[in-house]
Write a structure and sequence with these properties.
401 residues; mainly alpha; Ubiquitin-like (UB roll); Receptor-associated Protein; 3 domains; three-stranded antiparallel β-sheet; 16 helices; 77% helix
């Protein structure tokens, strides 16, 4: 059960956040163990909108995990005792939710639980990939190297995802701004001009009648149009959460020209990098494939990896298992076969991960270069259509006077 608390520490500094505990008594005890003086504590469901906002602002982002992993790798390389590492990080964490999770991990480690098992209790922070890597590091006695691998891997993934997202922020802002401006014109400007045109009694062109009709629809039934769009968005969101929806959206995005190729390269880079990192840490092939399927982030490639996994369990090689799937390029199949024959599959996967990362970077840069002129042309056509539809008849009126 989630509780929202307000507290102060021994120096009188205020501390707000959330804590997950079976009961309010256990929550209070846990907070008091942190030397906090509780001012107020209530169940999260009693917080209503405030609780939702607190949870949203305290959500753990990929960036938080990246920073945490780099800190862990640095402290482990410095030979700091494990308990001290997690105590230090839990005390210094800015995110309240992450601070709580790290405190619980610290308590478990102090109680004699291994690091991997302690982390596995918090899947919202430490993925199955993360936990498996730590477990492999514990078994091999190379925890320091493991956290270096994890930090490097997560930084690469964060940089790749961030670049793709940032590339879409500018066009998304421009498109949203354009839509808002056009709606305001339809609601505030066009009705006034339309009344002038209707008073003349002249036969209006088709495009003018279309713009006036759209304006009347937004003025008279705008709230219903908005409600309809919200319902459609909710239906699509719910459908996207279902197994059929995930599969459909996955295949759809790969069918979009250029974007489909970009998505493919992004997932191939993630698969190669993930498996290389795990194999380099001593995790068996089957376990590496299972975890990679869980964290790849796409339903189509997850299905491919699970199908290949079943074949590998039956004795097939990785390259043979991937070969029947057309979504896996011939290049990656051939390189995997070379890696298997030479005994350097990890090195080959690392090479492929770097190759596809460069491909993604190039594709994103090209996309950014194409988006700007496309948007300029699109916005120009939209504004031009509106001007011709409204100002054209007005010009005809003035020309006839």
């Amino acid at each position: 059960m989630l509780f929202i608390y307000q507290a102060t520490d021994q120096q009188g500094q205020k501390s707000d956040g959330t804590i997950d505990a079976p009961s309010i008594d256990i929550a209070i005890t846990s907070l008091q163990r942190r030397n906090l003086i509780i001012v107020k504590i209530v169940p999260a469901d009693a917080g209503g909108f405030l609780a939702t906002q607190v949870a949203w602002f305290n959500r753990i982002k990929l960036k938080d995990i990246v920073i945490l992993s780099r800190q862990l790798s640095t402290l482990f390389e410095a030979k700091v005792p494990v308990v001290n590492i997690f105590k230090l990080l839990s005390a210094e964490a800015d995110n309240a939710t992450l601070r709580k999770k790290l405190t619980e991990v610290t308590d478990d480690i102090e109680g004699g639980t291994s690091i991997s098992i302690s982390m596995s209790k918090h899947p919202e922070v430490f993925s199955s990939f993360y936990v498996s890597m730590v477990r492999a590091g514990e078994e091999s006695g190379k925890l320091s190297d493991t956290f270096v691998y994890l930090a490097d891997y997560l930084e690469r993934q964060y940089a790749l995802v961030s670049k793709a997202k940032n590339a879409l922020m500018y066009p998304a802002f421009v498109v949203v701004s354009f839509v808002v401006i056009m709606v305001l014109m339809m609601v505030l400007v066009v009705p006034q001009l339309a009344s002038i045109l209707k008073e003349t009694g002249q036969e209006l062109p088709l495009m003018t009648r279309f713009v006036i009709g759209l304006s009347d629809l937004l003025v008279n039934y705008g709230i219903f149009v908005l409600l309809f769009l919200v319902i459609i968005a909710l239906v699509l969101w719910r459908y996207g959460k279902s197994a059929l929806g995930k599969s459909s959206f996955s295949r759809f995005k790969f069918s979009v020209p250029y974007l489909g190729s970009l998505y493919q390269k992004l997932y191939l880079s993630r698969i190669s990098d993930n498996m290389d990192t795990m194999l380099s840490s001593g995790i068996p092939m089957i376990k590496s494939m299972e975890i990679t399927a869980d964290v790849v982030g796409d339903d189509l490639y997850r299905g491919i990896l699970l199908d290949a996994l079943n074949q590998v369990k039956g004795g097939s090689s990785l390259s043979s298992a991937l070969e029947p799937h057309t979504e896996m390029p011939r290049l990656i199949v051939q390189m995997a076969r070379i890696g298997e024959e030479t005994g350097k599959l990890g090195f080959v996967l690392k090479t492929m991960a770097r190759f596809y990362k460069r491909e993604v970077d190039t594709a994103v840069d090209t996309l950014v270069g194409l988006i700007e002129p496309i948007m300029i042309v699109g916005l120009g056509l939209g504004v031009g259509f509106l001007l011709v539809a409204i100002l054209g008849p007005i010009y005809n009126i003035t020309a006839g006077l």
